[in-house]
Amino acid sequence: MDKSSLKCIRNSEDLISQLPDEILIFILSPLKMKEAIRTSVLSHRWECLWSFTDTLDFDDPDTMQEIDDRKKKLKTERKKFVKRVNRILGLNQASTINKFRVCFELGKNSTRHIDSWLDFAISKRVKRLELDFTPLESMRHYYTFSHEQLTRIISKIGVHCINFLTSLTLKYVNVTGELLEHCLSICPVLEKLHVARCQSLGRLKISGPSLQLKYLHIINCSQIESIDIFAPNLESFGFVGPRIELYVNYAPCLLDVLIGAIYLVRINYLFCPLSNYLSQLQRLTLDICNLNDDNLELPDLQGLLNLRHLEVRIATSNDGSLLGLIPLIEATRVLHKFSLELTYFPCSKLRKEIELRKVMKCPNEHLKVVEIMGFVGRAIDIELAVYLLEIAVKLEKICINPRVPHLVGTPWEAEKEGDRESAEQLKRHLPLGAELVIL
């Protein structure tokens, strides 16, 4: 919250002061903790209100950026961050916690503090719990949320406190399948489970007729071996990782799927366990690494009858081709939106001057929106963009973003010279009434 915002609130203080505490606390809840605490300077009425908020979001991206820029030292700032969280939790007076989120580079050395934060959050009957310890660079020793730790918390404060948990997100936190399965068994209203970059997750079984789980994403967990799913309410499933044994035994509500691979593993094998549910999917996201092959090959999928949004994230060489996506696009009957995130890796031969390939084009009357991020203005993306513009006879908008996807939001997100001009050349292929937006 900037100074002008504080001044605006101060000038309206008489009106705001007439509101009951419950409403003022509700106003503070969406704010980051730093922002909420800063409101205490407005008046005596606001001085302690932040301590009653039921949303505790500890995130300090500015400091992390300064650490990454070598303007601050990680060890020093980590101590400050931990001390600040401990102080605020000691002052918090909320009876329950709606959201508890910690986002900073923390690891095994901070175990004692993180354990106490989990004690606090669960004792306050937390609903949404997120631990995001994403490092700026590589990190060897992750914090471990162990089965013993959970058992200790439950024996101390009672199992009823964890019954309120609806969402659990763990990034760069080590857990086991046994722990996650136990959480599902004692959290009757748990709807979201997201685990990313875990080094200890091997086998995971999601099973139970009374499961309320609607969202399950297991992303880049290097040791994962198998996932077994029997989830009557599951709507969104995501997996990116090494080759595994995947069993989707029962997921009648599945609408949204993300699949991808690491270590140059092809994702084709993942379609077989999902084959019974392709016809009901409304959104499909593919995360593909295609560095070794000139031609992208995907399985023949003819069952995508209800797919409305297809998103492809692909890392490829700039002498490759994306035309392998065409059979997948043509297999969709009612596709409304197509999104592409392209990360390319230069190779010895450039295809910029190579004549674009001629492909068969089937008109698509449903495709209304096309988005391409990472546009490089070479044959690799121009040929696919031209294909989409020529088949989408009722296209409303195509959005082009020349920036590299994983650099967006960082100081290095600047586009390369000439990319915008290359995107402008697509105007001559626009169908009547369509808009070209270059971000």
Secondary-structure class: alpha/beta
Outline: globular
Low-confidence stretches: 348-356
Largest sheet entry: 14 strands, parallel
Q: What Rg do the Cα atoms give?
A: 25 Å
N- and C-termini, Cα separation: 26 Å
Strand % is 15-25%
Strand order of the largest sheet: 1-2-3-5-7-9-11-13-14-15-16-17-18-19
Write structural notes for this entry.
- The protein is an alpha/beta fold and about 450 residues long.
- About 25% of the residues lie in helices and about 25% in strands.
- It contains twelve helices and 19 strands.
- The chain is globular.
- The two termini are about 25 Å apart.
- Residues about 350-355 have low confidence and may be disordered.
- It holds the Pfam family F-box.
- It comes from Quercus rubra.
- This is F-box domain-containing protein.
What topology does this entry show?
Layout: H1 3-11, H2 13-16, H3 21-28, H4 33-38, E1 55-59, H5 61-68, H6 74-91, E2 99-103, H7 111-123, E3 128-132, E4 143-144, H8 147-157, E5 167-171, E6 173-174, H9 177-186, E7 192-196, E8 203-207, E9 215-219, E10 226-230, E11 236-241, E12 245-250, E13 256-261, E14 283-290, E15 309-317, H10 326-331, E16 337-345, E17 369-373, H11 379-391, E18 397-401, H12 419-424, E19 435-438
Parallel strand pairs: 1-2, 2-3, 3-5, 4-6, 5-7, 7-9, 8-10, 9-11, 10-12, 11-13, 13-14, 14-15, 15-16, 16-17, 17-18, 18-19
Which features does this protein show?
alpha/beta, F-box domain-containing protein, 12 helices, 439 residues, F-box_dom, 19 strands, three-stranded parallel beta sheet, 14-stranded parallel beta sheet, F-box-like_dom_sf, globular
